[in-house]
Design goal:
Layout: H1 2-18, E1 23-33, E2 38-45, E3 49-56, E4 62-68, E5 78-85, E6 93-100, E7 103-112, E8 122-127, H2 148-152, E9 159-163, H3 177-188, H4 191-197, E10 202-205, H5 208-211, H6 223-233, E11 249-253, E12 256-260, H7 280-292, E13 297-302, H8 320-332, E14 338-342, E15 349-353, E16 361-365, E17 397-404, E18 411-418, E19 423-430
Parallel strand pairs: 8-9, 9-10, 12-13, 13-14, 14-16
Antiparallel strand pairs: 1-2, 2-5, 3-4, 3-6, 6-7, 8-17, 11-12, 15-16, 17-18, 18-19
Helix pairs in contact: 3-6
């Protein structure tokens, strides 16, 4: 009996050591990916170190990266880590193993580098407004749930763009810096959205709800903390410039270029004496990027809608001088192929506007994937002269963009899917429609 007692006591004392070490709490999530490099994000809990091994499925060549957590900012033992892999091979498929301390995690999905054939067909998803309502409050508006993600994950795409409001700060969250990070950790621990974001590479900009309070602008007191958290939880290729802070960046994918803009950090009220949405530094960076771009399609992603003239909500249209300056620049520099991608509004639509830049400007709004439905068709905004007929979707939805076709005849196909993954509408734009011409029709924005 005494022997059994000592054996039991020994086993009991050994239990903490048997289960010692950290764990993988969230991820891995693939971020910015090129033909030869990729970024991988994970979140660990209570770990001293973590490593990721990528193995080429064809050659068994291995790429290993290890990070120690000492000195890394933590929230209640949770630490977010970004691993950079370089010297990869274009169009290759890799297996992944994650090690957190001594615990090994074999990841089921495969990881791919970007392709290099400019004639390839490729697709990307466009999502925004992922409101997650606590269970006790879901009676306020039926239909708010995460079931959409299991359908969206089956929609073929090469990567995903978040156009703001990936998460929502509530008043109790944005009043202190610690509570702001708490909502990030809680969101990354949600498996339904995690299964979606961990499926394909992710890129993200913010809008007001993961930046600060509702409709927050550049005066938000914790905006530096917001940017710190954003850089910590999204493996984007860059954040702002050395001279101009913000979440804006750009990247290329085959024959398209993506300009991901920050509509919050430098924003002022539209009623100010010299109002701005982008700020002088970001606007100069954006214009120079457009001028240098050789891409067939130049996608401009921004959280707020841009050309909705009948909207009474936040819209770039209210910043007439700055937007007019931008459109004048596109006209003067003969920049072709510009398409805007926006979110925010809890409804989706496609707008086509003639701004005398030499070709029609399209704006593809995709919103929101789980947010409250806004029954736009029951408001004065139901009549939008810029809206392409049949493209209003005022229910939970997400978008997809496909680029296909031969050189010189590339086609941009826009689609909206409902929360069950069923296609709602489709619209095609040939690259030749977006070529600069010398004559425009109508003047919705006054150009000097």
């Amino acid at each position: 009996m005494r022997l059994l007692f000592f054996v039991f006591a020994f086993l009991l004392a050994s239990l903490p050591n048997l289960f010692a070490g950290g764990s993988l709490a969230s991820g891995p999530m693939q971020g910015h990916t090129t033909p030869t490099a990729t970024k991988i994000w994970i979140m660990v809990k209570g770990a001293e170190s973590a490593s990721i091994t990528l193995t080429d499925t064809a050659t068994n060549d291995m790429h290993i990266s290890k990070i120690f957590t000492e000195g890394k900012a933590a929230y209640e033992d949770y630490v977010a880590l970004v691993f950079d892999f370089n010297n990869l091979i274009a169009g290759k498929v890799y297996k992944m193993v994650v090690m957190v301390d001594s615990q090994e995690y074999k990841i089921d999905r495969l990881y791919r580098t970007a392709r290099t054939n400019m004639a390839d067909t490729y697709r990307f998803l466009v999502t925004s407004c992922a409101l997650h309502v606590p269970v006790g409050l879901r009676w306020l508006h039926p239909g708010i749930e995460d079931r959409v993600y299991k359908h969206a994950v089956k929609t073929e795409a090469d990567f995903n763009l978040w156009i703001g409001d990936y998460l929502y700060y509530f008043p109790k969250n944005y009043n202190t810096e610690a509570r702001m990070e708490k909502i990030w950790v809680k969101t990354r621990l949600r498996r339904k959205i995690g299964n979606y974001t961990e499926n394909i590479p992710q890129y993200s900009i913010w809008d007001d709800h993961e930046y600060g309070s509702n409709d927050a602008i550049g005066s938000f007191p914790y905006k530096k903390k917001s940017l710190e958290l954003f850089t910590k939880y999204w493996p984007n290729p860059a954040y702002g410039t050395p001279e101009t802070p913000g979440c804006f960046f750009k990247f290329d994918y085959l024959d398209s270029e993506f300009f991901m803009l920050d509509d919050r950090y430098h924003r002022t009220m539209p009623t100010d004496s010299n109002p701005t949405m982008l700020g002088e530094g970001q606007l100069a960076w954006f214009k120079e990027g457009l001028k240098q771009s050789k891409a067939v399609f130049k996608f401009v992603a921004i959280g707020s809608q841009v050309f909705n003239q009948v909207s009474t909500h936040e819209c770039y249209w209210q910043y007439t001088k700055e937007l007019g300056e931008l459109m004048q620049f596109i006209k003067n520099e003969k920049i072709s192929g510009v398409v805007f991608l926006t979110g925010d509004r809890h409804h989706s639509e496609l707008m086509k506007t003639d701004l005398e830049v030499g070709y029609p400007i399209y704006e593809f709004t995709s919103s929101g994937i789980t947010s409250f439905r806004r029954r736009t068709r029951r408001t004065a905004e139901s009549v939008n002269p810029s809206r392409v007929q049949g493209t209003l979707a005022d229910f939970q939805n997400y978008g997809r963009v496909t680029i296909t076709g031969t050189a010189g005849e590339r086609v941009c196909i826009l689609e909206i899917f409902n929360k069950r993954g069923k296609k709602v509408w489709e619209y095609s734009i040939n690259q030749n429609e977006l070529q600069h011409k010398s004559v425009g029709i109508g003047v919705p924005v006054k150009l000097d």
